[in-house]
């Protein structure tokens, strides 16, 4: 009898949580004033756990930060994202040592395609401009690859998911 009541209570709590998430997504979409579908990324399996006195947090990379299923974002060092060619929407983990030092590791790289385009600048932001759209680029990638405006680069973008960020893979030498 008590198990049935507990199961009923748990089902109610789950339904309530799902309804709250739906409402939060709707509100966020309105605030972003765009077709933002970040929640369609498979985040349900992401975890926070401990191993050997280290805290391990699994995330989805948004192009400049980490997104956890609760909707919070946390920064990722630009030099790490640039040097590891971290493609937007890839899954990664942060390993937090007792000293506070954080190490990052890619768990699952999202399938990506490689394209060739040029670097442009929009105000203070560097971008990669393609036939279809302009992608943001991390400043660390520009400095790491020693890029300049109008340089031709190869870049990585998610194969199946719309992205706002591109990752510079290489700079193509000028003729």
- Percent of residues in helices comes to 10-25%
Q: Which word captures the global form?
A: elongated
What integer value in Å does the Rg equal? 20 Å
The number of helical elements comes to 3
The helix/strand class is alpha+beta
CA-to-CA gap between the ends? 79 Å
Order of helices and strands: HEEEEHEEEEEHEE
As a percent range, the share of strand residues is 35-45%
How would you characterize the largest beta sheet?
A: 6 strands, antiparallel
Your description of this structure?
- The protein has three domains: 1-34; 38-108, no CATH class; 112-171, OB fold (Dihydrolipoamide Acetyltransferase, E2P), CATH 2.40.50.
- It has three helices and eleven strands, in the order αββββαβββββαββ.
- It has helices at residues 2-32, 78-83, 139-144, and strands spanning 48-51, 54-61, 65-67, 73-75, 91-96, 102-108, 112-122, 125-129, 134-136, 152-158, 167-171.
- β10 (152-158) and β11 (167-171) form a beta hairpin.
- The radius of gyration is 20 Å and the shape is elongated.
- The model has no long low-confidence stretch (mean pLDDT 80).
What are its keywords?
11 strands; alpha+beta; 175 residues; 3 domains; elongated; six-stranded antiparallel sheet; five-stranded antiparallel sheet; OB fold (Dihydrolipoamide Acetyltransferase, E2P); 25% helix
Quick overview of this protein structure:
By secondary structure, the protein is an alpha+beta fold.
